[in-house]
């Protein structure tokens, strides 16, 4: 029995053989194209050698073979080197920097020159020049005069994808569109749409403008399956610049050839009522833009004063006839020529204008740029400026002709009255009918002054409109007299001051509220200051206790609203130990002052238990954490035993005390102790110091040393140096030392300051 699957298997095999044949023919065709391109490059190199060596084609071919044999290179590579040495274009410059790119670029050039259209150019680029760069697709965009883009050629994209990108209208934001508008190269810019691009596309791509004769004629777009590394991208950019220059020459030139549109454009320039110039790019020997040639001078400009000062003539150059163009106008002409995007500017400084200011217009027409300017009319400008100022100031004018009774209103006055421009205006003598009744006396006095006494007058009143809206207006008017003192007209203006009125009302209310708030704040500050002074009055003089000489200085802030929370305390405990403490509650005002009282009194009470300084700081921290209004503060607490002369101390985020022992001084160690009120489970360490006769201990708050232009460490070092110098004077009393420190420490924050000096006798 026959196998039913045999025909299907044979068909599949035949199909496979056919596909293999097609693939083989495709490879052979590609090889043939490459071989043809290589032969074209070799023939071009032969032509260069014929011209350089003045020999025949046979001798040139022999010379090329000899060079290939000596250098160990292929004839195609030698041909590329010969062409690069003879040419001075972007391909040769790129080949000098990247020798490995010479053959692909020259081969691509040969293919481009032989290509029949831009589509064939794109295929040639993808076949010869882009594979060494790792690129897998290319698109050649042609720029339209309106900023649009057309897909002139592509390779590596599916036909249906290319079909949907045949035309990109102006204003659509794409990578190629941005390169065209900005005349710059763009690498893989965000999520901008483009041909062959999908959302979350990991591939890399670059768009580069293609320039010909100073004009951006299109954009070259090259794509990679993955973003190239930075070094590879830099190497590829040089080669793509050369390819962009090649592609620029393949795009279709304007119909009719260069200059075919000049007669029509010259006729347009002559028909314009304003002066105009037709300009065309003038290129240098390397193909770069050197200047703009004046192709045509309009009829309106011939014989004008500008032509006497600036000798424009057909065939001359713009910068030679008008050097001032380099100050800004030239750059605009260059951009319009390059991109085709029109340029318009009002009141642009222009020396060509009779007034020095003109409205300027630049448009590109084929290869030409049309420059048109209009002298700015100063009267029209002032009238427009006045109208603008009246609109912003909500000012409206009027005139009443005394002879004919004709009334003229500006459009703004109709809007103030709530009337349509076609409705009859309200005569000035009937103003009382439209005013609020309470303003009748004011309006009547105004009308008598203007209409009867015929003098200037002004008045503010409330206007009642037909739509129920009330406006606060100010009106001014004056009579205009003619020959013989005869009244000719009454002219004046209205101003809408409604917003000003309500602003003044709001300001008055705010002013009253502010005065009340200031009074309350002053009372609170005064109460805080009295409380502070009641607890810690500024102290002068020295006290003695158990072999200690103790002096205290308290300096409150100069400004009452900066009343702070600094405190000090010196008290003998039931255990005969002496409690020494200073502290500083964060903030200012009543809250800081009351917090200072709470912590100071709490520390006094807790010290009566006989606990050590570290335990006292822990308890005081719990007090700060569990108040109704939590606070933070710094403090130093010390217990001095007169029998042993040992000071046991602890700190809570505060600066350590200073011990002065001749001839030196030092800070006590910075033992562990976070500030009060930061967190409830804070731990504090204790320190001990054995004091001797004539030792001096200084405890202080940061208001003594703080400066805005110095860090705290610098201020501490300066205080230590000053205190040490004061201690070495010997004869100076403890009071003198403290006063000297208060005077010369140089703090500038106007904060409260507490300073305790303890000297052993």
UniProtKB/TrEMBL annotation:
SMART domains membership: ANTAR, PP2C_SIG
The organism's place on the tree of life at top rank: Bacteria
Keyword presence, RNA-binding: no
Residue intervals of the PAC domain: 457-509
Keyword Chloroplast (UniProt): no
Key words, A-Z: Hydrolase, Kinase, Transcription, Transcription regulation, Transferase
SUPFAM superfamilies membership: CheY-like (SSF52172), GAF domain-like (SSF55781), PP2C-like (SSF81606), PYP-like sensor domain (PAS domain) (SSF55785)
Ranges of residues in domain ANTAR: 22-83
Protein name as catalogued: SpoIIE family protein phosphatase
Taxonomy of the source species: Bacteria, Bacillati, Actinomycetota, Actinomycetes, Streptosporangiales
């Amino acid at each position: 029995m026959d196998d039913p699957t045999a025909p299907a298997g044979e068909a599949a095999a035949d199909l496979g053989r056919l596909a293999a044949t097609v693939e083989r023919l495709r490879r052979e065709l590609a090889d043939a194209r490459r071989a043809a391109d290589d032969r074209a490059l070799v023939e071009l190199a032969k032509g260069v050698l014929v011209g350089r060596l003045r020999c025949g084609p046979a001798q040139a071919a022999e010379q090329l073979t000899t060079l290939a044999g000596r250098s160990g290179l292929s004839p195609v590579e030698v041909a590329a080197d010969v062409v690069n040495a003879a040419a001075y274009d972007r391909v040769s410059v790129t080949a000098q920097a990247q020798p490995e790119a010479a053959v692909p670029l020259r081969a691509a050039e040969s293919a481009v020159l032989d290509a029949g259209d831009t589509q064939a150019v794109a295929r040639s680029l993808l076949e010869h020049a882009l594979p060494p760069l790792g690129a897998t697709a290319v698109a050649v965009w042609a720029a339209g005069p309106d900023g649009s883009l057309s897909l002139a050629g592509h390779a590596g994209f599916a036909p249906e994808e290319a079909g949907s990108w045949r035309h990109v209208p102006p204003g659509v934001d794409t990578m190629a569109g941005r390169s065209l508008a900005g005349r710059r190269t763009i690498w893989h810019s965000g999520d901008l749409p483009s041909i062959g691009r999908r959302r979350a596309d990991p591939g890399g791509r670059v768009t580069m403008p293609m320039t010909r004769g100073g004009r951006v004629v299109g954009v070259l777009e090259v794509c990679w399956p993955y973003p190239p590394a930075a070094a590879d991208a830099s190497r590829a950019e040089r080669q793509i610049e050369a390819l962009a220059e090649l592609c620029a020459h393949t795009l279709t030139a304007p119909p009719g050839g260069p200059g075919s549109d000049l007669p029509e454009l010259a006729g347009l320039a002559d028909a314009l009522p304003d002066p105009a110039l037709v300009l065309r790019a003038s290129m240098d020997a390397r193909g770069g833009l050197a200047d703009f040639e004046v192709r045509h001078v309009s009829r309106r400009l011939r014989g004008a004063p500008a032509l006497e000062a600036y000798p424009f003539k057909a065939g001359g150059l713009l910068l030679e006839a008008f050097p001032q163009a380099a100050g800004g106008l030239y750059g605009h002409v260059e951009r319009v020529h390059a991109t085709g995007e029109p340029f318009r500017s009002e009141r642009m400084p222009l020396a060509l204008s009779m007034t020095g200011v003109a409205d300027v217009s630049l448009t590109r027409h084929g290869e030409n740029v049309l420059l048109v300017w209009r002298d700015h009319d100063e009267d029209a400008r002032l009238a427009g400026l006045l109208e603008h100022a009246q609109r912003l100031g909500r000012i409206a004018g009027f005139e009443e002709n005394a002879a004919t009774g004709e009334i003229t209103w500006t459009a703004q006055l109709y809007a103030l009255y709530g009337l349509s421009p076609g409705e009859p205006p309200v005569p000035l003598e009937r103003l009382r009918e439209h005013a609020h009744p309470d303003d009748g006396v004011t309006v009547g006095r105004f009308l008598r002054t203007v209409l009867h006494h015929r003098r200037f007058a002004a008045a503010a009143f409330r206007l009642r409109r037909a739509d129920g809206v009330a406006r606060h207006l100010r009106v001014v008017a004056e009579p205009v007299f003619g020959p013989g003192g005869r009244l000719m007209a009454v002219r004046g203006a209205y101003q809408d001051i409604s917003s000003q009125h309500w602003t003044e009302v709001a300001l008055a209310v705010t002013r009253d509220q502010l005065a009340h708030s200031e009074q309350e704040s002053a009372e609170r500050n005064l109460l805080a200051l009295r409380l502070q002074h009641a607890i810690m009055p500024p102290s002068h003089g020295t006290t003695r206790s158990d072999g200690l000489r103790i002096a205290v200085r308290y300096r409150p802030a100069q400004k009452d609203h900066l009343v702070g929370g600094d405190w000090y305390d010196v008290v003998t405990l039931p255990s005969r130990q002496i409690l020494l403490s200073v502290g500083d509650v964060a903030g200012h005002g009543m809250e800081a002052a009351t917090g200072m009282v709470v912590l100071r009194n709490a520390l006094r009470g807790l010290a009566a238990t006989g606990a050590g300084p570290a335990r006292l700081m822990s308890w005081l921290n719990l007090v700060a954490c569990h108040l109704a209004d939590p606070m933070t503060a710094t403090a130093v607490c010390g217990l001095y035993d007169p029998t042993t002369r040992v000071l046991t101390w602890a700190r809570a985020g505060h600066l350590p005390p200073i011990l002065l022992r001749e001839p030196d001084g030092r800070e006590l160690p910075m033992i562990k102790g976070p500030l009060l009120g930061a967190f409830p489970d804070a731990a504090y360490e204790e320190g001990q110091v054995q004091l001797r006769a004539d030792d001096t201990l200084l405890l202080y708050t940061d208001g003594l040393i703080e400066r805005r232009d110095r860090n705290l460490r610098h201020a501490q070092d300066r205080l230590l140096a000053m205190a040490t110098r004061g201690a070495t004077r010997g004869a100076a009393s403890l009071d003198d030392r403290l006063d000297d420190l208060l005077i010369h420490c140089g703090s500038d924050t106007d904060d409260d300051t507490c300073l305790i000096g303890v000297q052993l006798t």
